[in-house]
Each structure stands twice: as structure tokens, then as C-alpha cells.
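Subject: sequence -> C-alpha cells, single chain

Hey, anyone have a minute? Need the predicted structure for the following. Not urgent.
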Amino acid sequence: MKSHRPGNPRRGRRLATLLALAALIAVVIAGCGSSGKSSSEASTKPSEQSSSSGGSSSGAPIKLMVIASVNSPIQSFPEVQAAAKVAADEVNAEGGIKGQKVQILFCNSASEVNKAEDCAREAVQEHVTAVVGQIDIFTTQDVPILAQAGIPDVGLSSNGNLIDFQNPDVYPLQAGTLGGYVAEPVAAKAVGKHSISTAAANVPSALVNAKEIKAVAEKIGVKYAGTVEVPDTGVTDYSPYAQKLASLHPEAVVNILSPAPDLGILKSAQSIGLNVQWMNQTQAFGEQEASQAGGLGEGMLIASPFPSVRSTQYPLIATFDKQMEAHGISPQATAATTYPHWMLGINGWLSVWAVEKAAQSISGAVTPSSLKEAMSKETNLELPGGFKWSPATPGPKGFPRVSNWTQYFITIKNGKEETVSSIKPVDGGQYVVPINE
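Reply:
Had a minute. Here:
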């Protein structure tokens, strides 16, 4: 900028203008959300986000809350909030939901039971129409709070707690981690593996998933060699657990672990020469983890309810990538850094659209009860990218809330994700076995 001599009257006017512009920019930035906050900064008080782009709206906004863990050592999924915000912007650009704008609230459950419960209570206090894209490990505690208030939980992505599949106020779009684990014995058999084991965190949801893998493996004629329980925290040497896995002599191993134990097992297994087909699911292992593993993730088979964000030959992924990039976020550019688990982002994005599509059949006000009534009648909603959702269609025995069990398989090749074309998508609904926690 061209300088002015002291005493020039234009300098004072220009300085005042720049200061006013800086203040305006600060206000705008402050309203753009809190996905980058640490768990200490992002309290259970939800941050509010609403779109002002396009469309015309009347009446109060329709509040939707995202509940997810961000910047916790166990789980960190900022993708959900980011993608839900983009979906809300797109919905608002088309006129909102029945003329009302969508407002996204966010609450960081931080992988802590008390904060997860507080997030559910905040949803009640904020009078949200629905929770969307929820992902946390404490649904046994927070889903009942939402259900008691009559708030539908749309697009909950399960970690394996059975309440996620059975509570009538939960409306999943896909089967969560359990869906991946159901499909993995099927994929192991497809690539010629005859025995399978699990390395499972010693937490209830992980052990439920291990039981399901065992049940499915036995159902399809794959030997289940056993489960090795691994502490979720506090371990610095994982070699004893890798030795236990080796003693089971499996041909494939499914890791049901949070990031640190996952990487610890892979490195310890390499050090003792354990050579198996490693398997995982996209909520736990992606390009970021592959980079941290130093190449140990190469060739891993990773179950996912959606294709890789790099696989734009699929209409769902092409549509998702296009909408995200239109709002300044590139899924492919951030897959190894800022947003490493885009499967959950896609789920959060679809969850907002699911509310919008279901609400189209509501004749009066869009409320939690009218939204639930609408979803109870829908058997073939088409969401962006051709994704089909049937919230009124019951799932298989023991899992009545989930009708979609499709799983794709992704692998890591040269550090990048790619969808495996040689393994057909697995419909886990025909293999899932009812189990008790």
C-alpha cells in the first residue's frame, strides 16, 4: 500500500476504514464454527452455524445438532461438522426446509461419557429438531436422553453398541463399524484366507464387534482363531499382544482399536515377523494412519459404507466432492491431514439431506415428532448422489433400525486410498448374526 506523509488527512480516513473492515472480518470469522477447537476449547455448549447463502426463509431456523468427538486421543472426527455445515448451506441455497433455514449446532463429546451426556442435554435445551451424523462411543448413555425428549437421532454412525440398532428413535443411514466388521470375514474368504482373529480394545463396543466377527466367520466357514484383548490406553509396549496374536496362527487379523494401539500392534507385529492380511474399517484407519504407520498399512483391507473420497467414478462421491469443494474444502487434499476419516463426513452430509428429504412429506410444522412420523413411512428416499435410504424398512433380526448394510472395501496403495474393484460390495445384512452384549 502506498504510504502517506504525516499530517496527510487521507491517512486518517483510510486507517479508520481499514480498522472497521478488520473488525467486520473478525466478526464473520467468529461465526464460522468451531471445528478446529481443541476438546478443552469446544465445551459441551454447542457452537452455532447457519447459512446465509441463497434461498428465502421464513420463521425460526430448524436446528440440527452434530454430536462428535474432536481432538480426543481416542477419537477425533471434525469431518462430520464440516460436511454437515456444507449440506446445510446447500439446503439453504435451495430455500431451506419448507421455507425455514437450517442451523447447524455442534457439541464436542470428546470421547468422555459426561460430555456425551451433556451434549444430549444441550440438544434437549436447544430444542433441536434432530441430532444428525452422531458419532461417539457412549450412545448407551446419551441416546436414552435424546429418546426421552422425543428427539430423532438421524444418521447415527454406530461404534457397535446395540442400542444404536434397536432404539426406535435412532435412524441410521448405514450400519456403522459393526457393518464393516460383519463384512470383513466375507472379504477375507474372498481373498483366500481361511482363518481370522481380532485384536480388540477392552471396551464393550469393541468386544461386541469381535463377537460378531466370530459369529459371521463361523457362519460362512472361516475358522475363528481367537480374540486378543488390548488395553485402550496406558500401554507403551505392544509386543506381548502381537505375540499372542502370532500364537493363534491366523491368516487375517481385524484390528478393533483406537489409533495408538492400532499403530502399536502393526509395528510390534512387524518386529516379530507376523505376516497376515490386516483388516480394519475407515473410522479407524485412513491415509493419516497409513502415513504414521510408515508403510505398514499398505495392502490393508478397510471396510467402508461408502467408496473412497478419491473414487469419483461413483456418483455419490462425485456429488459429495463437488459440494465440499464448492465451499472451499477438498476431501482429497485433506484426506491425510485435516480430515482423515471422510466416511464419517459423508455420513454427516447425507444425514442433513435425509432430514430435508423426509421433511418434504410433512404437511404442517417440522418438529421432532412430525419428522419421526414422516420417516416412519419412508421406504425409498433418494439422497444426493443416488444414495437410497429406507428408514421405515426394518433391518435384519436383532438389528431392526438398520436396513442398509452395504460395505465397500478400500485399500492403501502408495499411501493413498483406493476402492478395491476386485471385491464386490458386501451386503452384510445377509450375514449379520443377532448377539447379546
